[in-house]
Design brief:
This protein is of the alpha+beta class. The chain folds into three domains: 288 residues, no CATH class; 115 residues, no CATH class; 58 residues, Orthogonal Bundle (Arc Repressor Mutant, subunit A). Helices cover 40% and strands 21% of the residues. A nine-stranded mixed sheet has the order 2-6-7-10-1-11-12-13-14. A hairpin with a 2-residue loop joins strand 6 and strand 7. Helix 2 packs antiparallel against helix 3 and helix 5 crosses helix 6. The chain binds adenosine-5'-diphosphate (ADP), zinc ion and magnesium ion. Zinc ion binds next to loops. The site of magnesium ion (MG) has 2 residues, from loops.
């Protein structure tokens, strides 16, 4: 029997506002700030304190919800989600429940088969919990509590069960990360835990309408873990079904070392959160005006940009997606395209090839490099027009990268202009052949690959500046004489 996975995602995105969701404490980078340095009586859960809604957090949430084309609720309600755990000083988490901020949205993802629309079920606001670190040292096993994260604004984005493969799930998670970066609400640094993904997975025979029993994987913070976790669960369910066994509804964790999931809790020990409306907060009202102003402030969205890159530059889906992934890179690309009439494909190749590797080697991002879009465009044009050859172009780019000098200046300074002069090249070829009689003889005896060696010799003799097409033609002409 053939099976297909059915997957829905719950994603938690921290909103990187200046202050927390319900108090004035700063939102800090957990990997930088010392533990419990950004905590006040409100987020420490002291009795008698009162929460106040952070307007910017609502604005950020509205940006995401609007970009996801959700219906925004004019009135939404915060509730208390009660449970006892050391990372939750109040004993409850404030979260939207029955009346979330936004519902019924959609997002367009890119798959190898083309675009796919994923439905968004809901987007709601809540607060993050503290962070626990489990350690085992000379004091034995114990847990450290960092409340810097307690009360950080958190957005939960829940999809309908619309995914049918691990690749689609990954494409969605990547697109969502790109989106929150474009919207300026989250750094997208998954490894810092600012975006956490929980896939729900079930399996059914292909063609069957009803869904199978789902299993939820908790708190994944890398795309790789997401893809592998979903693949692992899918295969596990298929094996169970093939063996005539039932899949148990449960919550599992992902073991990064063993690359397997492990059971955390079954349906029977599911929490009863005893939700009730938060009595310390009024309902949240969002009027049309606010929604309109947010809508107007939205930048070009990633999937819109991908479409534009395909339509106006003639890039393919994979190329367009690669560029749009990073807002700064896509803006740089646009600027190079505006600066000179050069083919988009070659700009793509230069940017994602040579330029990215120079950036990687030196640990720089595109915003901090010395090469302006105009000077990259100039370089690409020099190569496209045959002024310098491809290899010289690479060397010039490397020099531009360290010095910031314009391409033309480097080319003139170093006398790198490509030589296409027929007489000059014919002379170098003749001289090279004269110096390599053995190779010429073996070429004539039928060993045609010798041509590549001779080609290299000619190029070297000409100082790397000779036009490779002219050299090749001349070489073949003289060899066949
Ligand atoms: P829960 O109440 O257990 O959190 P929900 O019905 O709220 O479950 O759904 C949570 C997520 O699981 C959503 O993203 C939804 O699309 C997805 N989901 C629901 N049922 C299934 C299923 N049978 N298989 C896969 N995903 C599912
Ligand atoms: Zn606080
Ligand atoms: Mg769930």
């Amino acid at each position: 029997m053939e099976f297909e996975p059915v997957i829905g995602l719950e994603v938690h995105v921290e909103l990187e506002t200046r202050s927390k969701m319900f108090c004035a404490c700063p939102v800090v980078d957990l990997t930088q700030a010392s533990p419990n340095s950004a905590v006040c009586p409100v987020c420490a859960g002291m009795p008698g304190t009162l929460p106040v809604i952070n307007e910017t957090a609502v604005e950020f949430a509205l940006r995401v919800a609007t970009a996801l084309q959700c219906e925004i609720a004019p009135t939404s309600i915060f509730a208390r989600k009660n449970y006892f755990y050391p990372d939750l000083p109040k004993g409850y988490q404030i979260s939207q429940y029955e009346q979330p901020l936004a519902v019924n949205g959609q997002i367009t993802i890119q798959t190898p088969q083309g675009e796919k629309v994923i439905r968004i079920r809901r987007v709601h606001l809540e607060e993050d919990t503290g962070k626990l670190t489990h350690v085992e040292d000379t004091n034995g096993a114990h847990s450290l509590v960092d409340l810097n994260r307690a009360g950080v604004p958190l957005l939960e984005i829940v999809t309908e069960p619309d995914f049918r493969s691990p690749e689609e799930v990954r494409a969605y998670a990547e697109m969502l990360r790109t989106l929150v970066r474009y919207l300026g609400v989250n750094s997208g640094d998954l490894e810092k835990g600012v975006m956490r993904i929980e896939p729900n997975i079930s399996v059914r025979p292909k063609g069957q309408q009803e869904f199978g029993t789902k299993v939820e994987i908790k708190n994944l913070n890398s795309f790789r873990a997401l893809e592998r976790g979903v693949t692992y669960e899918t295969n596990r369910h298929i094996d169970l079904i093939n063996a005539g066994k039932a899949v148990a509804q449960e919550t599992v964790g992902w073991d990064e070392t063993k690359q397997v999931t492990y059971s955390q809790r079954s349906k029977e020990d599911a929490h009863d959160y005893r939700y009730f409306p938060e009595p310390d907060l009024p309902p949240l009202f969002v009027n049309e005006e606010w929604i309109d102003s947010v809508e107007k402030s939205l930048p070009e969205l990633p999937w819109e940009k991908i479409r534009r890159f395909m339509q106006s530059y003639g890039l393919n889906r994979a190329e367009a997606t690669r560029l749009a992934e990073d807002l700064a890179v896509s803006q740089y690309f646009d600027q190079v395209m505006e600066a000179a009439s050069v083919p988009a494909r070659s700009v793509f190749a230069w940017v994602t090839g040579e330029l990215f590797s120079l950036m990687n080697e030196s640990g720089q991002v595109i915003d901090s490099i010395k090469i302006t879009p105009q000077s990259l465009a100039d370089l690409i044009k020099l190569v496209a027009d045959g002024e310098i050859n491809q290899n010289t172009g690479k060397a010039v780019l490397a020099e531009m990268f360290t010095t910031g000098k314009p391409a033309a200046e480097i080319v003139t300074e170093k006398g790198l202009t490509q030589v296409s002069d027929g007489d000059f090249i014919a002379g170098v070829v003749a001289q090279t052949l004269a110096e390599n009689r053995l190779e010429v003889a073996s070429f004539k005896a039928g060993k045609e690959t010798v041509v590549n060696f001779l080609f290299g010799q000619v190029m070297r003799k000409a100082g790397g500046k000779a036009n490779p097409q002219v050299v090749r033609a001349e070489l073949e002409k003289q060899l066949k004489q």
